[in-house]
Every structure is written in C-alpha cells, then in structure tokens.
Specification:
alpha+beta, elongated
Length: about 60
C-alpha cells in the first residue's frame, strides 16, 4: 500500500522535501484562488514521485 506524504501548511514557503516525504505548501489564503493553490500542491506531489522509493523518475529529480 502506498504511503501518503505529510503535508504541512506554512505562511512563507512551498517545497517538497523528499528525504522525509514531506510537502510544505503556503496557506490557501496566500493564493489568488483555489485553482492556484491546488496547481501548486499537485506540482509538489508530482515532484515527489521522482524519489527512488516512488516511481524513481530521474527526469523529475535531476537538473540538466
């Protein structure tokens, strides 16, 4: 069974920390609308899939 990441809401930053399977996203009130919030959240969730314990997608984790 897949393990869900911990998702935290903060007021000053958004990032994915793959080392401990954590996503930090700005509070929803900081975005212009809910679409912008969910777009950012889904971006971070997609980035998380690149981890070697997930899909191991090198295109998501390596920079050129």
């Amino acid at each position: 069974m897949p393990v869900s990441p911990q998702i935290y809401h903060k007021s000053n930053c958004t990032y994915c920390k793959r080392s401990n399977d954590t996503i930090v996203v700005l509070n929803m009130q900081k975005f212009d609308n809910s679409a912008a919030f969910y777009s950012t959240l889904f971006h971070e969730l997609t980035y998380r899939t690149g981890h070697e314990t997930k899909l191991n997608c090198k295109e998501l984790t390596e920079s050129n």
